[in-house]
């Protein structure tokens, strides 16, 4: 839609600021929201079937011995699986754990599981930068997810769940039964609609904010607010292998993973001023697939993908964590731990990327 809208609005003499807003931001916002909606509906459909037939409880029994190695009960596997759909559900799902320390530890580990929004955004970025090699980046994320869980269990395990305080698992296994397809389809559609509306709201809000910060009425990129902020902080962000644009997107990922593509879109395609001054007047209708590989190196892209994936999941997940653990101190500890680990991982992956690429 970007090109037709650009031509249409330009042809009828629409002000440049509205052409930039409508032809660049709005189609990207719609595209990102639809892609996330589709992924979440798929995940919800599969896990609803597993739960409806009565197998979810049996998975808890099967995984009890594995979870014990992390200092947890088998019940916590349900929270981990739910986190592939949404970290909020994963944090809330730890309620089934009776021991408070094990519950907080489970929440800390749940944060390491990339949610559905992450799995909608990261494959998109990986495909843009690495093409067919994107599968190896995504597999690496899964591998590091396990490493992150192991490290986190070591860091917090002895404090939250000392061996002498850990309790075993007691639960009733429901009988197998046929799934209620009507309920499954209603749940799937409901979740899909919910994520679509949330994605639209978040991406629109963040995109507009960054678009306004990056817009320059004079047409001079150096007159934009975000450029001045970015230039000021870039010496710091480069320590972690991130330019100021990708660092801004990294910060936005702590608000919502859906915001990442919106921020990148606003910074690189949503404002004609920054883009035109960087690439020339003919580039205003280009899309992310064409733009990002030209302005972001593969090493920086690799660092950004890993940093964003293992950053704070989102503000709502943070609120859910505080609600479940009833401790501001532990909520803040978990937040600082993940942000620090994300930036450290970004630095490591950037230097690995320099060697590989």
What is the approximate shape? globular
- String of helices and strands: HHHHHHHHHHHHHHHHHH
Distance between the termini: 34 Å
Q: Which oligomeric state applies? A: single chain
**Cα-based radius of gyration, to the nearest Å:** 22 Å
- What is the mean predicted local confidence, pLDDT? 80
Helix content: over 70%
Please give the largest β-sheet: none
The helix tally amounts to 18
Q: Give the amount of beta strand, in percent.
A: under 5%
Q: How does the helix and strand content classify structurally?
A: mainly alpha
Number of strands: 0
* Poorly predicted sequence stretches spanning 5 or more consecutive residues: 271-286
Features:
single chain; 357 residues; mainly alpha; 18 helices; 74% helix; globular
Write the layout of secondary structure elements.
Elements: H1 2-11, H2 16-52, H3 55-62, H4 64-68, H5 76-83, H6 87-93, H7 100-110, H8 116-130, H9 134-160, H10 181-214, H11 225-237, H12 244-253, H13 259-268, H14 272-279, H15 288-295, H16 298-309, H17 315-325, H18 328-356
């Amino acid at each position: 839609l970007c090109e037709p809208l650009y031509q249409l609005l330009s042809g009828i003499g629409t002000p440049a600021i509205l052409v930039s807003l409508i032809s660049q931001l709005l189609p990207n916002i719609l595209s990102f929201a639809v892609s996330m909606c589709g992924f979440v509906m798929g995940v919800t459909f599969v896990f609803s079937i597993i739960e409806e037939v009565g197998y979810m409880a049996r998975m808890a029994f099967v995984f009890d011995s594995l979870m014990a190695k992390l200092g947890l009960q088998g019940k916590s596997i349900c929270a981990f699986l739910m986190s592939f759909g949404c970290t909020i559900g994963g944090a809330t799902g730890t309620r089934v754990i009776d021991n408070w320390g094990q519950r907080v530890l489970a929440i800390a580990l749940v944060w390491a599981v990339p949610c559905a929004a992450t799995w909608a955004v990261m494959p998109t970025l990986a495909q843009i930068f690495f093409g067919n090699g994107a599968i190896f980046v995504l597999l690496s994320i899964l591998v590091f997810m396990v490493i992150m869980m192991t490290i986190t269990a070591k860091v917090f395990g002895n404090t939250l769940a000392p061996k002498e305080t850990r309790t075993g698992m007691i639960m009733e296994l429901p009988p197998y039964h046929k799934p209620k397809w009507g309920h499954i389809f209603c749940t799937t559609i409901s979740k899909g609609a919910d994520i679509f509306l949330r994605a639209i709201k978040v991406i629109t809000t963040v995109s507009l904010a960054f678009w306004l910060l990056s817009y320059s009425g004079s047409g001079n990129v150096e007159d934009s607010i975000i450029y001045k902020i970015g230039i000021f902080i870039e010496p710091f962000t480069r320590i972690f292998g991130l330019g100021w644009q990708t660092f801004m997107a990294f910060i936005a990922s702590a608000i919502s993973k859906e915001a990442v593509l919106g921020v990148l879109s606003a910074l690189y395609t949503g404002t004609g001023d920054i883009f035109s001054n960087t690439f020339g007047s003919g580039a205003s209708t280009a899309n992310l697939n064409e733009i990002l590989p030209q302005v972001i190196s593969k090493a920086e892209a690799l660092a950004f993908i890993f940093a964003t994936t293992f950053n704070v999941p989102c503000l709502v997940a943070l609120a859910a964590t505080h609600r479940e653990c009833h401790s501001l101190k532990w909520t803040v500890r978990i937040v600082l731990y993940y942000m620090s680990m994300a930036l450290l991982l970004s630095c490591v992956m950037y230097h690995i990327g320099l060697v590989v690429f």
